[in-house]
Design brief:
327 residues; alpha/beta; Rossmann fold; 6-stranded mixed beta sheet; 10 strands; 14% strand
C-alpha cells in the first residue's frame, strides 16, 4: 500500500460520519433478481436522514474543519443532495451555511435545505454556473468552501459505504455498480473495495448526455462537456473532479452509460422492489446494472448497486410516468 493510499484509508477508518449518518441496510431485490437471473442487492442510501448518501461526505468534511474555518461560515454548491447534507450538518453543529443551487434544482430539495436553516441562493442553469457564483460569494464574504465531490475528506466520507459493503455483502466476489456525477462516490467506494479486496469489480454508471467521467477516462485526462442534460439532475456536472478522476483511473474496472428512458425504467423497478420512489440519480445505478447484465449476458452472479437518493418531487415523478408511457 503506497503512502497516499494508506493516508486515505486512515481518513476513512477515522471518519466521523456516524455522528450524523447511519449504517444503511443492504437489501435484496428479489423480483429484479429473478427477472435478471442474478442476485441483486441494493445499498439503501436513500434511507439516510436526508434521503441521500451525500450526508456522509458533507459530515466528514465539515467536522474536519478547523474552529476558525467553521466560525467564518460555510458555503457550498449543489443541485440538492449535497446541499441538504451541508445544511443538515451545519444545523446540528450550530454553523452558518450558504448554499448556491442552480435554478433547475427540484423544489423539494430547495425547501429541505431552507428547512435546515441554510441560506439558499438560486443561480445558473447547472452546477458549473452555480459554482462560479458560489466561488465569488466565498471571496466576497470570506466563507469556507465545502466542495460537493472534489475533496479528499468528502470522498473519505462517501468511502464509508465501501466499508459497510465489506461487512454486509457476500464473501464471494461480486460487482458493484455506482452512480457517477462528479465522481466522489465511486472514487471512495472503489478505493476501499480495491484496496481491501481486489477481486471485487466496480462499474461506473453515467447518463448518456452527462458522462464527463466516462469521456475523461477514455481521453486519459479531464474532459469538460459543453452541455449536460439535466434530467438526472443529481449528476448533471460538466466536469468530474480532479481527485475522483485520478482515483477512478486507478480503481474502477469499467463504465457504462444509460438513456433517460432506461433511468425511468429503473425508477419503476426500484419502486416495485422497495416501494420507494427514487429520484433519477437514485436509480441510476440500477439502470446501469440492468443494461450491463443484458449487454454482457451475466447470469448467476451477485450484483450490488447504491440507491443513492430519493429526493424526487411530484413534478419529477409525473415526468417519469409520462416518459414511461411515451416509451
Amino acid at each position: 500500500m503506497n503512502p497516499s493510499t494508506q493516508n486515505f484509508m486512515e481518513q476513512v477508518l477515522r471518519s466521523r460520519v456516524y455522528d450524523l449518518a447511519i449504517e444503511t441496510p443492504l437489501q435484496e431485490a428479489h423480483k429484479l433478481g429473478k427477472q435478471l437471473g442474478n442476485r441483486i442487492l441494493l445499498k439503501r442510501e436513500d434511507q439516510q436522514p436526508i434521503y441521500s448518501f451525500k450526508l456522509r461526505g458533507a459530515c466528514q468534511k465539515i467536522i474536519s474543519l478547523t474552529h476558525e474555518e467553521k466560525a467564518r461560515g460555510i458555503i457550498t454548491v449543489s443541485a440538492g443532495n449535497h446541499a441538504q447534507g451541508v445544511a443538515y450538518t451545519a444545523h446540528h453543529l450550530g454553523l452558518n451555511a450558504t448554499v448556491v443551487m442552480p435554478e433547475i434544482a427540484p423544489a423539494i430539495k430547495v425547501q429541505a435545505v431552507e428547512d435546515w436553516g441554510a441560506k439558499v441562493v438560486l443561480y445558473g442553469q447547472n452546477v458549473t454556473e452555480a459554482e462560479q457564483f458560489a466561488r465569488l460569494l466565498q471571496q466576497q464574504e470570506n466563507l469556507t468552501f465545502v466542495h460537493p465531490f472534489d475533496d479528499l475528506q468528502v470522498i473519505a466520507g462517501q468511502a464509508t459505504i465501501g466499508l459497510e459493503l465489506l461487512k454486509q455483502a457476500p464473501k464471494d466476489p461480486y460487482t458493484v455498480f455506482v452512480p457517477v456525477g462528479g465522481g466522489g462516490l465511486i472514487a471512495g467506494i472503489a478505493a476501499v473495495l480495491k484496496t481491501i479486496r481486489s477481486n471485487i469489480r466496480v462499474i461506473g454508471v453515467e447518463p448518456e448526455h452527462a458522462n464527463a467521467m466516462t469521456q475523461s477516462i477514455q481521453a486519459g485526462h479531464q474532459v469538460k462537456l459543453d452541455h449536460v442534460d439535466t434530467f438526472v439532475d443529481a449528476v448533471a456536472v460538466k466536469q468530474a473532479g480532479f481527485h475522483p478522476f485520478q482515483m477512478a483511473q486507478q480503481y474502477v474496472d469499467d463504465w457504462i452509460t444509460v438513456s433517460n428512458h432506461e433511468v425511468c425504467m429503473a425508477i419503476r423497478d426500484t419502486y416495485e422492489n422497495t416501494r420507494t420512489l427514487m429520484e433519477p440519480g437514485g436509480a441510476l445505478g440500477v439502470a446501469g446494472l440492468k443494461k450491463y447484465v443484458q449487454q454482457k449476458g451475466i447470469t448467476g452472479e451477485t450484483l450490488v448497486t447504491i440507491t443513492s437518493g430519493a429526493n424526487a418531487d411530484f413534478d419529477r415523478i409525473r415526468e417519469v410516468a409520462e416518459r414511461l408511457r411515451a416509451g
